[in-house]
Amino acid sequence: MKQVVGMVVSNKMQKSVVVAVDRLFHHKVYNRYIKRTSKFMAHDEHNQCNIGDRVRLDPSRPLSKRKHWIVAEILKKARIYTPPTAPVYENVPSSTEAPPS
């Protein structure tokens, strides 16, 4: 087996991730290139991978029933959206108070 590059689609397990690997092959009858996706379970020792990361997998001995790959390196980290926090103002009177008369 050789190294493969794919995208992390699940990291809900401890020390394991699921990586989707895309490949193109030429269909002889249709004379077109077709994309196929394979999903591999891989060992992530330090739980560093997040969903959307691009990773390189190395083959290894069987680690469990479905896990035969190890995350060799994270090629590109995913951009994770963090909503902006509202600024906190102090000593500002609220608008619910009655206007001075």
Automatic annotation (TrEMBL):
Domain of life, per lineage: Eukaryota
Keywords: Ribonucleoprotein, Ribosomal protein, RNA-binding, rRNA-binding
A GO molecular function held by the record: structural constituent of ribosome
SUPFAM superfamilies: Nucleic acid-binding proteins (SSF50249)
Pfam families: Ribosomal_S17
GO cellular component: ribonucleoprotein complex; ribosome
Alphabetical GO biological process terms: translation
Cited InterPro entries: NA-bd_OB-fold, Ribosomal_uS17, Ribosomal_uS17_bact/chlr
Record keyword Ribonucleoprotein present: yes
Physiological role: One of the primary rRNA binding proteins, it binds specifically to the 5'-end of 16S ribosomal RNA.
Family label: Belongs to the universal ribosomal protein uS17 family.
Name of the protein in question: Small ribosomal subunit protein uS17c
Organism: Arachis duranensis
